[in-house]
## 1
Amino acid sequence: MKGLKYFRVISVGGLICISVAVYSQKMVRNPHKFTKESWEVNEPCNPCHVYSSDEKSGKRFIISYENDTIVSPDSIYVSGVSKLCISCHDGIVAGFDHRVDIWHILDGRSRYSHNHPVSVEYRAKNKGRYRLHDPDTTSSGLGGTIAEDLLVNGRVECVSCHNAHFSMEKVACSTCPKVDNINLDENYLSLWKSNRQSLLCLTCHNF
Amino acid sequence: MSGKLQVMILCLMGFVHTVSVAQNGNKAPVNVGLNDEKSVQWVSTYPTPQGIKTKNKFLKKVGNAVFGIRPAVFIKPVAIYADSPKKYWVLDQKAGSVFIVEKEKSSLYKLKLEDDRPLGSLVDICRVPGTGLLFTDSRLGKIFVIRQGAKKVTPFKVSVNLEQPTGIAYLESKNEIWVLETKAHRIAVLSKDGTLIRTIGKRGIGEGEFNYPTHIWIDDKGLVYIVDSMNYRVQIFNSDGELISMFGEAGDGSGYFAMPKGIAVDSHGNIYVADALFHTVQIFDSKGNFLYNFGQQGRNDGDFWMPSGIYISKDDYIFVADSYNSRIQVFKLVNHE
């Protein structure tokens, strides 16, 4: 009888350990983490970013050709860092399930607008349909203000909501941002924080 | 009195319309990508910034306004197949449709599936003699065929399930259809009846291996050019599937790749690669040496906003799917020799 009791305890303990291990693996999964791929050659920021070397110092740095300065005046065109995202998420390189259409993220004039606009200037306002908090004084909930943590040069881009770098704390790149205490299980869209009860939306929007 | 006034207004509108069309038609061609021997000249853009030109444009506009009809326009064109500059087929990924552009008739036809279901995520198109035009749908994992004179598209039966089929081309010397399976990181070689003959490549960074291959071109000599997009290179195979050469690497200078997409080869054997992040088309010689490029980020004639597919006709007309400008731009390679 005693042996059966130990067996039960060990079995239950084992099952819990296996469950935790499986859950942990799920937790740390990052769709942009390529470090364990067979073709990866110690360049963890590949293939989203491209390395180059300074001829004089020999130091390696990440090319940032995605940070172009051309900005569409009428917000019809995706620009800046968001171009890097949609150049891959096009239904050709990344499959349809990961496809992002620019016409899904256009401004409200488009009949194809089903999603949040990107490459648009963030303008704080307390009137009208889309009321927004002051980005310079409102906390993002990530340690700084909205302007500091979520906007790119004052504009809303893909990376304002999505954190492509999460759970990459072990990579060689020391500049990659990281967010602790993030519930990745419910965060399949790699959001900066949970959007349960529209928490992420309400960070900026003041309905 | 009021009748005379109406006639005057109509005459004035007709005059303004005539002037605007004439101005557009007389626009000087943009000369881009020059060297001593050859130059690439901008020929046309479709649709024009003024919209799709039709013979009865004004009346059509009034009719559309009255009946609430929205004229067909490109949303996100990604690939082209052309018989001539006056007739070509365009895959529009976002519209989920195939468009036929017939410039003499100034018309744009939209093709759908037989049961009117929308297509998924169109990627590439090629002509297979005796069969029709074949195109890939990466979402549905299928190839579809447009038969001669048909107004609907039908599925092309393939003996295996394709994993995210993207680039497609026809190898005439062997009667084979080469399809890229981007998700499986390989090439599937099919017979004309859709039977899988063999696959080529696997995921990796070595020679003959791929990391998200997306676009393909087969030239008149039977050489196969593959854009190995996430390895930032072009690999060239012979018709037996043996690697001949490869070139390219990631970088931010001329001759490097940032996000290579469509590929095509002109009658001189020079290789054209559209790069979405550079907003340009780079031209290499047959050995992979960079020659020159044309296009820059913008919305004017000759500019691009994240181009993807490219097609070169036998008489060296270059068609570029200027995807995020929602248009097709046509260029011509001019030989000064």
Note: Chain B touches chain A at residues 75-76, 78, 93-94, 120-121, 123, 138-139, 164, 166, 182-183, 203-205, 209, 211-212, 214, 229-232, 250-252, 258-259, 261, 276-278, 297-299, 305-306, 308, 324 (CB under 8 Å).
## 2
Amino acid sequence: MAETFELADRYFERYQEIIPGYEKFLASLAEPLPLYFRLNTLKLKDPESVLRGLRRQGFEVEPVERVPWFFRVEPREASLGNTEEYYLGLIYPMTLSSSLPVYALEPKPGELILDLCAAPGSKTTQIAQVTEDRAVIVANDRRLDRITALVANLRRLGVACAVTTVYRGEQFPMEVSFDKVLVDAPCSGEGRYRKGYEGELLYQKEGRTNLSGIQKGLLVRAYDLLKPGGLLVYSTCTINPEENEAVVDYLLRKRQAELLSWEAPLPSHPGLTEWQGRPFHPDLKKAKRFYAHEIEAVGFFVAKLRRTV
Amino acid sequence: MSRKNRKKMDPRATWPQPVSLEERARILQFLEERFGFSPEIFEPYEFLATSKNYWLFVRTPYLGDLEKIKVQTAGLLFLRKVSGYLKPTTAALQRFGRYATKNLLELDRLTLDRLRLEKKIPIELEIEPGYVILKCEGQIWGCALYLPGKLISYLP
């Protein structure tokens, strides 16, 4: 365990300059991740019966004031997947920050929305919830085994406004154009790392994948799938600028995309405009970085863009 | 999961087809007569049909465009065609069951647990035989079949 701690400290050292309150960040990695769920308002607007039920089973449940319909649960090591509330589709366990890309997307009823890397469906079901099941969501994932989990969650939550597809994201067919596209990209997941509890550090993996290459391919295809004026949200749960700002910067160089500001319900920091001596587009400060120790959830990066032509 | 063990896309995956106005009227009539669902509840939705199922999908002018892409599922699996009858799915009832006004069967916790465990329990009810919606402690659980003297669970 001591070795894990040292390795983690050494790993995150390269972010010392960009993570605010770095010592607090390191300290937070020794704690397991807080546990949250979203109330499924498609089925239930009043949380009381759910809260009563979970408390009867020994959970402590408190609403998250800044993010409507989210609740924090203790003990955080427990699983909500075996509860009756889960079985009945009244709750969706997900980390608090996973709601942020949907805040940036601002989905509206009637819009045609593509969730390009959708499984297991936290954001697809949140879009359905925000639009009262009235947006039209294409929920895609490249792997059929992950689609099975997505379909199960859509069914469990009672979502009727989504179709599921299995395409490689970077090859999603161009026959349909979308009002909005969400790319919650596969990433190294540094934002969810907790020493000895959760996640693994990229360098520990065998056969490192070229994640930023995959992310760039997904983002460019997502942009090309937009109608003119359409909105694109790119998110990851990693700190690594190579998977965040560098990917968005790549899109800005390849396409006529425009970065937009957006309102987030949790504290954030501007995106980086430079990393290891390499400058990024100055508008990248409009992207937002969310750090795990400040939001008490998985660290996230979210950028909102518009297709101009 | 290793690459070679990953599932392949079902080559039969095709779009379910929107039902005709007459078929929609028949579905809505069944839902109203059996469960007291007001047709207005389903006004924002289309019913799409496959050979054995009806799916509920949000009404949209984009339906024609979407048919250009190959889908795994479209909307919420809503009704199954079982031996000439229509059976609402658990997912459909857990979502819309709160709007039902007929054949809503309120069970106490003990009876519900017994039904889930034994799958079939003896019971005498003053209702017409057929599918019923199971409710317990304020929550909708799903579907069961009432036949004279017995209740058969369709809870997964």
Note: Residues 1-5, 7-12 of chain B have pLDDT under 50 and may be disordered.
